[in-house]
Write a structure and sequence with these properties.
245 residues; alpha/beta; Rossmann fold; 8-stranded mixed beta sheet; globular; disordered N terminus
Length: 245
């Protein structure tokens, strides 16, 4: 696992030369990884229609998707398995997905092509900068954050994505009635998520008080192979669903 810093020489591809890329990256950690031949081919075949360029200014969702529909932001989709599934079962929603890892982006592009998915657009850029500079307040109908890095060591907890500042930014960008859905398989992180998100005054917990405020897994979120394996080993998974008031 590498340090969570970057330089201009490591700027993700697809970012215009005149767009600044800060050394401190808030929402991800770059890791070494290889792109397969299939993923590279997916960039070539499906990238032009589905990859967006980070461009500061109000995001024009209707232009990006070719239609007007509820807009869901996903932060960090990994290899895109759950993302593709959700987009397929919710065809009437648009999904704006942020991920910086080349292999993961390639994997999702491959799924988009193979499954003929038309309601996903990908930004290979730091999600925090996208939120700050592209998404105006009350522009989102939902936010998905699934299995973010738990940063197990106490000294690394400050690197966790779910922090009060980000939750407040997301809350302001949700429309009234919009939702924030987080999931994790690490109980200490689930507890921190619950404390941080519950403290946000713009959000209301829709979870079950009898279950500590955690929500049942929504039908649209699939069980991934990784998650299934963990459940068979007795590991828990915690879903948190809050709505903007």
């Amino acid at each position: 696992m590498t340090d969570n810093t970057s330089t201009e020489s490591h700027k993700p591809s697809g970012i215009p030369a005149d767009v600044p890329f800060l050394r401190t990256v808030k929402s991800y950690v770059l890791r070494a990884g290889r792109t397969t031949i299939g993923q590279a081919k997916a960039y070539e075949l499906y990238g032009p229609a589905n990859l967006l360029t980070y461009t500061p200014g109000a995001f024009n969702a209707a232009a990006a998707f070719g239609r007007t529909a509820p807009l869901i932001l996903e932060i960090g989709f990994g290899m895109g398995e759950a993302t593709a599934h959700i987009a397929k079962v919710r065809p009437d929603d648009n999904f704006l997905c942020c991920e910086v890892h080349e292999a993961g982006v390639g994997a999702l592009l491959k799924r988009i092509g193979e499954q003929d998915i038309h309601n996903i657009r990908i930004l290979r850029h730091d999600a925090v900068e996208v939120i700050d500079h592209m998404l105006p307040e009350q522009s989102l109908d939902g936010v998905h954050i699934y299995f973010p890095d738990p940063w197990h060591k106490t000294k690394h907890h400050k690197r966790r994505l779910i922090q009060a500042e980000l939750v407040n930014k997301l809350s302001k960008r949700l429309k009234v009635g919009g939702y924030l859905h987080c999931a994790t398989d690490w109980q200490p992180y689930a507890e921190q998520m619950m404390d941080v998100i519950s403290a946000e005054k713009l959000l209301h917990n829709t979870g079950d008080a009898a279950q500590g405020g955690y929500a049942p897994k929504p039908d649209y979120r699939p069980l991934t192979k990784f998650e299934n394996r963990g459940l068979k080993l007795g590991h828990g998974v915690w879903d948190l669903v809050f709505r903007r008031v």
